[in-house]
Amino acid sequence: MRTQLQHKIDNKTKPTGALGQLEAIALQVGLIQQTLSPVIKQPTILVFAADHGLADEKISPYPKDVTWQMAMNFVAGGAAISVFCRQNDIQLKVIDAGVDYDFPADSPIIPAKIARGSRNMRQEPAMSLEECEKAMASGREFVKAEADKGCNTIGFGEMGIGNTSPSSLLMHRFTGLPIETCTGAGAGMHGEQLTYKQQVLKEISEKYDPQSPLETLATFGGLEIAMMVGAMLEAKAQGMILLIDGFIATAALLTACQFDASTLDNALFCHQSEEKGHRLLLEHLKANPILQLGMRLGEGTGAAVALPVIQSALAFLNEMASFEDAGVSKE
Ligand SMILES: Cc1cc2ncn([C@H]3O[C@H](COP(=O)(O)O)[C@@H](O)[C@H]3O)c2cc1C
Ligand SMILES: O=C(O)c1cccnc1
């Protein structure tokens, strides 16, 4: 299939390699779908939202209430992710993985609370193994339901004040890079505030020594991250395209790869976030991000913005004339 896809790409009416990374995307998606004519069907972004006990330690400049307030904003249509999904015809679903708030019963936010937030990991592991497994299983169910309806492309988004911290800890643990290298400003911790955040995370990383991927995720993760990890593993199992957003989603993917290394094969890295650590995390995964726009938001926004580029890659593969079709002379 790889040889056939490469042959099809090289026979399009263009100099060899002239569509650059679009060619790599077309090849990868063809391999994922095992076809010379890949298509994106019912693209969907799942945004997993949860709170973090660690937010009590002031590791984010914003208050915890922003988590539920932004989740409401997502479904009301006013957030960045709402706008970009509307613009690009992407179905948006917001899942309450563990927000410390009771959403109104008539809200379109999908209830799947495992707990009212993870625990403060400066004191105790963020989740029990049972909670972590429950979150992962729930993430799998959501993706399976989308696959059953005919969706073949899933973007992963998140909302959770404090969630760059668990992401940094997971990156540190699974890459072996120093915690300072893995820890950045998040929603806006600069200067002394960032130094403080790095100190807190260093203290936490030295407090525990989890062994298995599950134990590591339960200790240092968060409910939305665990649900996202399960969702990514199921998306790979279903042969779907995984649209990976920024730092947090990439940390979740790195975690998913500890459970099933082949998850990486189906992942498209939509952008390189400004968040410190994301560049090195992408390098660790040998990933070539599609966009570099200086974004540092999360929510799945990088995935939503990159989808049209991926669609262009499939459009050239499916619709461009070959040298033979167009009667154009080859070198
Ligand atoms: C208004 C607002 C909207 C957001 N949308 C995504 N995030 C992003 O910021 C948070 C992570 O940064 P930290 O670890 O520093 O808290 C996550 O919720 C992430 O999705 C937001 C943050 C804020 C404040
Ligand atoms: O890259 C991200 O996902 C990110 C960066 C900063 C804050 N929130 C998310």
From TrEMBL:
GO terms for biological process: cobalamin biosynthetic process. The keyword DNA damage does not apply. Pathway: Nucleoside biosynthesis; alpha-ribazole biosynthesis; alpha-ribazole from 5,6-dimethylbenzimidazole: step 1/2. It comes from the Bacteria. InterPro entries: Nict_dMeBzImd_PRibTrfase, Nict_dMeBzImd_PRibTrfase_bact, Nict_dMeBzImd_PRibTrfase_N, Nict_dMeBzImd_PRibTrfase_sf. Gene3D superfamilies: 1.10.1610.10, 3.40.50.10210. Pfam families: DBI_PRT. One of its GO terms (molecular function) is nicotinate-nucleotide-dimethylbenzimidazole phosphoribosyltransferase activity. The keyword Glycosyltransferase applies. CDD domains: DMB-PRT_CobT (cd02439). The active site is at E299 (proton acceptor). It catalyses: 5,6-dimethylbenzimidazole + nicotinate beta-D-ribonucleotide = alpha-ribazole 5'-phosphate + nicotinate + H(+). Its EC number is 2.4.2.21. Keywords: Cobalamin biosynthesis, Glycosyltransferase, Transferase. It is an enzyme of class 2 (transferase). Belongs to the CobT family. NCBIfam families: cobT_DBIPRT, PRK00105.1. Catalyzes the synthesis of alpha-ribazole-5'-phosphate from nicotinate mononucleotide (NAMN) and 5,6-dimethylbenzimidazole (DMB). This is Nicotinate-nucleotide--dimethylbenzimidazole phosphoribosyltransferase. It comes from Geofilum rubicundum JCM 15548. The gene is cobT.
